[in-house]
Amino acid sequence: MTKHRIIYDTDPGIDDAIALVFQARHPQIELVGITSVFGNADIDTTTTNALYLASRFAPGVPVVRGAAAPLRRPPPGPIPHVHGKDALGDIERIGRVDKHEDGRDAHRFIVETVRAHPGEITLLAVGPLTNLALALKEDPAIAALVREVVVMGGAFGINGVLGNATPAAEANMHGDPDAADIVLGAPWKVSIVGLDVTHQTVMTTAFLASLRDSAGDAGRFVWDVSRFYERFHAGDGMSKGIYAHDYSAAAFVVARELYTTRSGPVRVLTEGIAAGLTIQKPDSVRASAPDWDARPSCAACIGVDSDAVLDLFARTLRN
Ligand code: RIB
Ligand code: CA
């Protein structure tokens, strides 16, 4: 089977790091680049973290610095209570960082890589969508050349949840709603892996401890880095474990059969108290809705076989 060639657009971030370890170890994934973006921390921090993660788990994969701020808002403030002061759970870092940033801007790297490999590149985006929007602005024709865009973000209220950054907005959509509305409306194939399924996919303490004891360096790292995130989730009312947000989007790339999707165009609110809210008009709805009807359909995940998704993670790390 041909490999999935992925540009991983990320704001590491604890769950971003966990998803990177999975990609680095999965035999059907070829990481062709890691592009950083602000989000879980400022761009200096997320880029430093991307360099660290690539040095440790994905040597040879270029790391490219991306956007420091949303398209038309100031950069958000830090959120050390979620991912730690260093945004990687404040763990002791093992090993040397032996990588330097690729000199290009992330959006330029995306354009050049997509053009060099037409029809082959999957953009796996698990932070604010600013880099992808900038790439589209620079070269709109890349939309026809990308294999697929898979986004961790948004929520459609399937299980009663619309947001985690606010009551109405998931964090990545809230981080840059203007970019999100552009990216989800562009003429490329988009799949959305949002809170509707990531909240159903919980890595429990027991699951993480089992990986710590059975999956070598990768398993120990996932355990270490998830300690801070688990304390944050506990404070948020969850009993023992973490949501597998960004990993779920990586799992979708290689195992979409584990997800149920709903097709339809999606808008992202860009203003007001619900900025970042994602609203889909399912294709089954016939009534006219001009603000949606001119846009291509996206596949939004509305169901998941979470046991199988977690089993995929464990098997991949143990191999
Ligand atoms: O809402 C979850 C998302 O927000 C994840 O991508 C997490 O890393 C944060 O960026
Ligand atoms: Ca993220």
Describe the protein.
The chain has one domain: Inosine-uridine Nucleoside N-ribohydrolase, Chain A (Alpha-Beta Complex). Helices cover 39% and strands 18% of the residues. The protein has 13 helices and 12 strands. The protein has helices at residues 14-25, 43-57, 80-83, 106-116, 130-138, 171-175, 177-185, 195-198, 205-214, 216-235, 245-254, 290-293, 306-318, and strands at residues 4-10, 29-36, 63-64, 121-125, 148-152, 190-193, 202-204, 241-243, 259-264, 266-268, 278-280, 298-304. It has an 8-stranded mixed β-sheet, sandwiched between helices. α1 (14-25) runs parallel beside α2, α1 (14-25) packs parallel to α11 and α5 (130-138) crosses α7. The radius of gyration is 18 Å and the shape is globular. 53% of the residues are buried. Calcium ion (CA) binds next to loops.
What's the helix and strand layout?
Layout: E1 4-10, H1 14-25, E2 29-36, H2 43-57, E3 63-64, H3 80-83, H4 106-116, E4 121-125, H5 130-138, E5 148-152, H6 171-175, H7 177-185, E6 190-193, H8 195-198, E7 202-204, H9 205-214, H10 216-235, E8 241-243, H11 245-254, E9 259-264, E10 266-268, E11 278-280, H12 290-293, E12 298-304, H13 306-318
Parallel strand pairs: 1-2, 1-4, 2-3, 4-5, 5-6, 6-12
Antiparallel strand pairs: 7-8, 9-12, 10-11
Helix pairs in contact: 1-2, 1-10, 1-11, 4-5, 5-7, 9-10
Bound molecules: alpha-D-ribofuranose and calcium ion.
